[in-house]
Amino acid sequence: MEQSPNDFLTTKELADLLRIKERKVYDLAAAGDVPCVRVVGKLLFPRQEIENWISAAHSGPGTPDAPLPNIVAGSHDPLLDWALRESGCELAAFFDGSHDGLTRIGARTAMAAGIHIHEGSGWNIGAVSAALGQNPVVLVEFARRQRGIIHAPTLSGKISGIADLHGLRFAHRQTSAASQTLFEDLAQKAGIDPTTLDGPENPARTEDDVARMVQDGHADTAFGLASVARQFGLGFVPVVQERFDLLVWRQAWFEPPIQKLINFARSDSFAARAAEMTGYDISGLGTVRFNGP
After folding, report:
1. Residues 18 and 124 occupy one common structural domain
2. What is the DSSP letter of 10?
3. Residue 210's CATH number
4. Strand 118-119 relative to strand 92-95: parallel, antiparallel, unpaired?
5. For the residues of 104-127, what is the DSSP string, one character each?
6. Do 191 and 163 share a structural domain?
7. Which domain holds residue 84?
8. Which residues neighbour 73 within 8 Å (Cβ) at sequence distance 6 or greater?
9. What is the pLDDT of residues 145-174, one digit of tens each?
10. Of 43-52, 90-99, 106-115, 250-259, the least confident
11. Is 0.85 topped by the overall pTM?
12. Cα radius of gyration (the chain)
């Protein structure tokens, strides 16, 4: 899937936006003080993350204690989705990707967000720190998940990794999904240009949707979760274990909706469900990974 050039800023565009010299932009990038990616030696700045970064620098009068909507945004996770319903926490879900979740947390249009943004050897902390590091938010581990190649049963034994996806129809995710960003990075390392993979024109917006595209025959393969592959009776080749965290405004952490969800996640029934779904490791549940000021 080809991303729009409007999703990224060049060094000149960022310099113009901040009203600083381009040299200063390079200095900020070198120091790790601004969200950026380097592609074939060129610095690009994800527009959405830059907007979050600027919002996080806001100072002056505000309404930090204004009520937050009872919404969990961010990345779709089948286990979290089930827990939201079974716990009776009265939190609604709006899942449209990790990066969208970061934006909604920054805009205070969500109480919490599920995220799994890959950062070299780790997950999520850098993105949260860059976008919301000066805000009273807490990042808590929810689960480790097995992610890999979901494929049609007829392809069993024919796929051992991403390099084997040449010539197969692939179901993409939306650009705000961290799994799409991760897949594109892994595909390039495997010698595949992800934009050349044919597949459904419209992206799948949830983990269930991406598996359903394969099940319905609209795609041969996808990059999804082991739990979903099992649910839909599809083949699965593991690629990476990712950490899925909950990002929560601190003022909401001790409120009944979040506490009811977290307490349910510590129950025996939740552990049994995670084991039944497969592909989950919940041993780190509740571990604080980031705590804002």
Report:
1. no
2. -
3. 3.40.190.290
4. unpaired
5. HHHTTS-SEEEE--EETTEESHHH
6. yes
7. 68-293
8. 93, 94, 95, 96, 100, 101, 104, 105, 109, 110, 112, 113, 114
9. 999 999 999 999 999 999 999 999 999 999
10. 43-52
11. no
12. 19
> 258 with 143, same domain?
yes
Do 182 and 215 fall into the same domain?
Answer: yes
| CATH code of 19's domain | 3.90.105
- Specify the amino acid at residue 132: L
At 282, the amino acid letter reads I
pLDDT tens track for 179-218: 999 999 999 999 999 999 999 999 999 999 999 999 999 9
| Residue type (1 letter), 280 | Y
SS3 (DSSP) at 286? coil
Q: Are residues 144 and 212 in the same domain?
A: yes
Q: Please give the tally of structural domains in the chain.
A: 2
One domain, residues 37 and 84: no
Residue found by looking up tokens 């595949």 in the block: 192
Distance CA 259, CA 252 (A): 9
Cβ neighbourhood burial of 124 (10 Å; 0-12, 13-18, 19+):
buried
For residues 95 and 77, give the distance between their C-alpha atoms in angstroms, rounded to a whole number.
9
Question: Is 187 inside any structural domain?
Answer: yes
The pair of structure tokens assigned to 68 is 């937050």
In a domain, 233, yes or no: yes
Mean pLDDT of the chain: 91
